[in-house]
């Protein structure tokens, strides 16, 4: 989100009569992010292809659920992202490509980035080390400011995961008309 764009993150309703619709993703929900190894995973599924809010400038806001599954902990948190942040996810993948494929990269200084960037809800923080240094990818699922909980998930991702992530992003953008 640029500096001129006001935060349009919908606040949580407090009156049950004006409560937002159920934000649990249906079983056939679009999965924007799916990062998994043989033991654990992190995913982000949209709760609807219809925007929850459209601001006067045409910026669309969507709800999703981030889910962590492992042998140690299983949980989920609601997060939101804007139509602009879909492009940010693509740029984050590009930046990660450059960082981890750089032969001059410092193996002790991993790439890190957050998504979504708006900060109005929960988000994921990605860490990626140089693949030949033996560092796994790590994704932190960070709950919103309500609880401040963070779950760190190391993942041994296969080589093709970034191509799969781009296919998922393209499918979601097409479904949302973005």
List the helices and strands and how they pair.
Blueprint: E1 31-36, E2 41-46, E3 53-54, E4 60-69, E5 74-82, H1 83-101, E6 111-115, E7 123-128, E8 137-142, E9 150-155, H2 161-176
Antiparallel strand pairs: 1-2, 2-4, 3-4, 4-5, 6-7, 7-8, 8-9
Structure description:
This protein has 178 residues and is α+β, with helices and mostly antiparallel strands. The protein contains two helices and nine strands. The chain has helices at residues 83-101, 161-176, and strands at 31-36, 41-46, 53-54, 60-69, 74-82, 111-115, 123-128, 137-142, 150-155. Strands 1, 2, 3, 4 and 5 form a five-stranded antiparallel beta sheet that branches. Helix 1 packs antiparallel against helix 2 (161-176). 25% of the residues are buried. Residues 1-21 have low confidence and may be disordered.
TL;DR of this structure?
The protein is of the alpha+beta class.
Extended strand count: 9
Terminal CA distance reads 16 Å
- Return the structural class: alpha+beta
How large is the share of residues in beta strands?
25-35%
Helix content: 10-25%
Order of helices and strands: EEEEEHEEEEH
Number of helices: 2
Task: Estimate the mean pLDDT confidence.
Answer: 81
- Residue ranges: pLDDT <50 for 5 or more in a row? 1-21
Oligomer: single chain
Report the biggest beta sheet as strand number plus sense, adding barrel if it closes.
Answer: 5 strands, antiparallel
- Indicate the radius of gyration in whole angstroms: 17 Å
Q: Any idea what the shape is?
A: globular
